[in-house]
């Protein structure tokens, strides 16, 4: 669904998820990694239906009033198109899964189902079921109740049909079994023949249906999987006597009972069982009904075990140190003299943790202020902040409790930090705090000196292993004083601050980015060097897209690397013929936001927490930071150039064919692998100096 100027946001996101599916289908990707990409594809779809599909559905129910939100696209038609695309891609993903499982057999790895269990395996599976699975099962006899209890969002269930002979006639008994999440989805079966055997928990339960229902005298029994996805919007209105955290926790719990937006079922399920469930659950045809395969919740494949088959997974890279910044010594002492850039996962995230640990112990450090969006489940960041508070530092944490799907984890840490004396700020009314910043105050020669860092990604040890992100460590007093003003805004947000260095949403980003584009237009028209190079996750703001179109029309060359949503249509004569756009999906998730403006011979380079989406520009607190250090500026321009040269994992937005791989000109060039090599060479040069 396209108009003349823009791609539809939701359909563009589906195209991104299709790029993930391409990785699952790519024979050059290690087999077990391909299974994990299938898991990512499935997990992405779950979140899409909870959030974006649910939003479009609400717009559809609102009628014409919602057209402005969708940029003029018809909501009802869009819902139908989404469903058609998802059904097609779900079927494709099942074919890919079957193909991968066939290929695993060539490596003596067998994923068996309940019909392939041998007598030797049966002994283990019966015992495993009785000891580990049976105690965790929740089984609901549907015929005996008036209404199905609310099925948990995105949990998988087996819909069981049991046919009993009663009074000389057959009676159908319908049952739901919740697949327990407390048991690993993939059960490895001990083997004596040197081969690896895996059975999915779903099939293990199917194999033991006779054990579960041994009190019944039944003629036949079958089980097919179903799953429901619910609207994930949070409701924070209501009881004024409740605290913000209490309201949020209640709303997260209520999400379990949100309106259904998708019902996925095994396409082999008996029609009478499906009809019974839909009627009992009061799901009508306006909801998205998706026929699927035997197994749902394929997101669990993200954690498919490697089974010791190292040749079937990507080689692990050893994160490198930052040249000139020894982690064993004092980071603050080094940062006082020079800015440093950390590029994860190529370089180790340990610098971020070490910075905070050093600040927590240093007697000269008086305060720490930090913004937190998503924390790891076990967070060394949070531990370091608590440690600092215990050592008498003034610790202030702006924690975004509405970081979608991480609310419960953030609330847990918020409560823990508050108990330990950390001062908490819960963002700004009506705005999510999405910026990634930290500032410390250190007393040096009876004066306060600032140190800090600004990042494109979350302060999360887990995602730092798979997300590519930049972090700038700096003692630039002007930049850090601006960050301090951002924290002032959190507490007194009716005052709009002025910043000398940072570009801050929601007050200045739109105008500042527009001014930077205008400068490139002006330079091009004056015969000076011009050009715009941008790397981000998503581009959907029509106003900034129009500015890029304007730059293209006068001849400014624009290069875009966009991982996800891209509503800009490149290479259209008279509108965007000077804009090239690619997407890279590979081993790591491309996550940094990097903005480079040629500015004649004096490039302006920025790292940012903000994509060019309307929510990031106008409805969130975001920070875009200029890079002043020439070496770091050069490094960022070079790493952008490495990504731009990719001809293995780059897809071309300019092609009429969705997700077509970039035309291969010259030798193979895979940017993520080349980026790691770039940092290895950089490290060698620093050692040899």
From TrEMBL:
The keyword Magnesium applies. It comes from the Bacteria. It catalyses: [phosphate](n) + ATP = [phosphate](n+1) + ADP. Residues 331-494, 502-664 form the Polyphosphate kinase C-terminal domain. Residues 6-111 form the Polyphosphate kinase N-terminal domain. This is Polyphosphate kinase. GO terms for biological process: polyphosphate biosynthetic process. Residues 121-304 form the Polyphosphate kinase middle domain. The active site is at residue 434. It comes from Psychroflexus aurantiacus. Mg(2+) binds at residues 374, 404. Belongs to the polyphosphate kinase 1 (PPK1) family. Pfam families: PP_kinase, PP_kinase_C, PP_kinase_C_1, PP_kinase_N. GO terms for cellular component: polyphosphate kinase complex. Catalyzes the reversible transfer of the terminal phosphate of ATP to form a long-chain polyphosphate (polyP).
